[in-house]
User: Fold this.
Amino acid sequence: MDADDLAAICKTQVTTKPKEIILKMKSSLKKLIALVGMTVLAVSSLSAQDSGALVEALVKKGVLTDQEGEEIRADLTKEYATTSAGKLNVSSHITQLKLYGDGRLRYEYVGQEGQANGVSNNHNWRARYRIRVGADYVFTDNFKAGFELESATDNDSANQSFGNGFGKSSINVGLIYLQYKPWDFVTLTGGKMKNPFYTTDLVWDADINPEGAAEVFSWDINDQFTIGVTAAQFNYTENTDSASLTGNSGKMQDSWIYAGQLPMTYKFSKDVKATLAPGFYSTTGNNASTVITGSPSSTGTFSAMNLNVITAPGDVSFKVFNQKAKFYWDLAYNASGESRVHQTYGIVNQNNGLEDSIAWLVGLQLGDNKKKGDWLVGVDFRQTGLGAVDPNLADSDFGNGNLNQQGVKIRTGYNFTDFLQGNITYFNTWNYKENIATAGQAPNNVGGLNGVNATSRLQLDVVWKF
Assistant:
């Protein structure tokens, strides 16, 4: 209420009845109180949504009329547009910005029993933590970009262990990508990206973000059937041109992974859907560089060779007693499996069977973890032949990252709030074949990849999102 309002009220005293004067003063006073309240809230950086909700509450309580509420909303909008208080300034070419992150505390037991020619027995409890923060940007002209920072440097884990004299962990780049969508059915991505393939951790660890380029095409044939094509060219290891390798013209070759997939989804009804995604990946070149993993790895001179893997993951999702459920599977066959066992790993006169070139899993999941009160239970059984998949890419927790393993993975989770979740995961595996002999000569010694007789792992997690 300003000087003009007061003058108008005084003027009405001559021509207006006392009751009308009181009503006008009451209305002006209510507006003054509401405006003062809104001003305080604006100074306190209250969002426009919260301010609007408060105005609506005052209207419902009868403190303000509908017209007064509309006037105050207009004043707040005008004020918000002329001040930087409570705003995040972004460039005009950014149409949407999403900030996200999560933290995790883990208490974990890891145990294993070594084979005769393998690693020693080990049983250990440890506390670990992980943090990830990132941002997704939506630009004009059909572009999108994002980045993510995380603890640790392993390609398959962002975990850091407690107990290092209260030392600090480093923050590393986990994602950095640029995406272009020229048409609704085409998505082109370059950089360090989230895995574009439909897969399970039998072949690709969920924590691995590959680097290179990917092209995703998707078409809705009708309301029930969707088909797509996914292709990728991943730069696996970069080798110096001056490095030597006998039998390769005196130079090392960079290692690339070329992959393709044909994902298909069919909706039988509102609650029943099936997905099948046959594909392949092939690794070229020779890898002499160390691949940093959180588990045993293959980093010899020929470790990127003899990998021509055909995959066939899929699932059928449905509902059980109004709860989401999913039956899922995966199959991987390395067409060069025998050569990988003999030439890459140097294992002689053994493992000539087809089973050493195959990895597979089947599993069942009930429930989902999205919001407060949600729960999930899942179990799968899998078997991994020694030459079936790349140990530097497959799940680092199952079998403690070793090949030649079979066993179960059991997991459960519960959402205490929309942002706080508790998880329990248990792995139990045993060797597929016992005491596999190796040539024992560098660089082909398979070493820790087939060195365990049995493993067990228990993970107790608390995860919060922000």
DSSP finds five helices and 20 strands in the chain.
